[in-house]
Specification:
Blueprint lengths: L19 H17 L29 E4 L3 E5 L4 E6 L7 H14 L5 E6 L5 H12 E5 L6 E5 L3 E6 L2
Helix pairs in contact: 2-3
Length: 163
């Protein structure tokens, strides 16, 4: 007697893949991830680093605008001494008063475009950004029309450690 081998029929179709559950998961997951995504804007600001070799070329003394950020408040200096001190108000730096002083300096020296921000250690990075934004431009209100515009103050900013 011969043994008969029973082979399964090779013509049988493969079963369909049921992806209904996976599709249900994607329908819920994709909108959730899109809604919860944090969209941020990255801005790059070019800074100039002061060099030691550049000081010998000047023949006349030049105005150096320095904003010193201290734990007690802000100081505005001219490179040699502190011209004005602005203590903190309610635990925050007085950026409005700094803007007023910078506007007066800009009206006296309209060709001046550079300034330096000096910071003490252990001061939050956010304050550096706020002071740099204040140095770069100011919002001014046109008294005749009442429109608010922006004017450039000192866009070339150098940073360093406070003495």
């Amino acid at each position: 007697m011969r043994r008969r081998h029973h082979y399964r029929s090779r013509t049988k179709e493969t079963p369909d893949l049921d992806i209904t559950t996976f599709m249900n998961l994607m329908v819920v997951l994709v909108p959730f991830l899109l809604i919860s995504a944090v969209f941020s804007r990255v801005t790059i600001l070019e800074l100039s680093v002061p060099t030691a070799a550049g000081g010998s070329q000047l023949t006349q003394p030049n105005l150096a605008i320095e904003v010193i950020v201290r734990k007690a408040g802000l100081e505005l200096g001219n490179g040699n001494s502190v011209v004005a001190a602005m203590p903190k108000k309610d635990g925050e730096y007085d950026l409005e008063q700094l803007t007023e002083m910078l506007l007066r300096l800009k009206s006296s020296y309209p060709e001046k475009t550079d300034a330096t921000v000096l910071m003490e250690p252990d001061i939050e990075y956010d304050y550096l950004i706020r002071v740099m934004d204040t140095l770069r431009e100011a919002e001014i209100t046109d008294e005749a029309s009442g429109e608010i515009g922006k004017t450039a103050l000192f866009p070339n900013i150098s940073i360093g450690d406070a003495p």
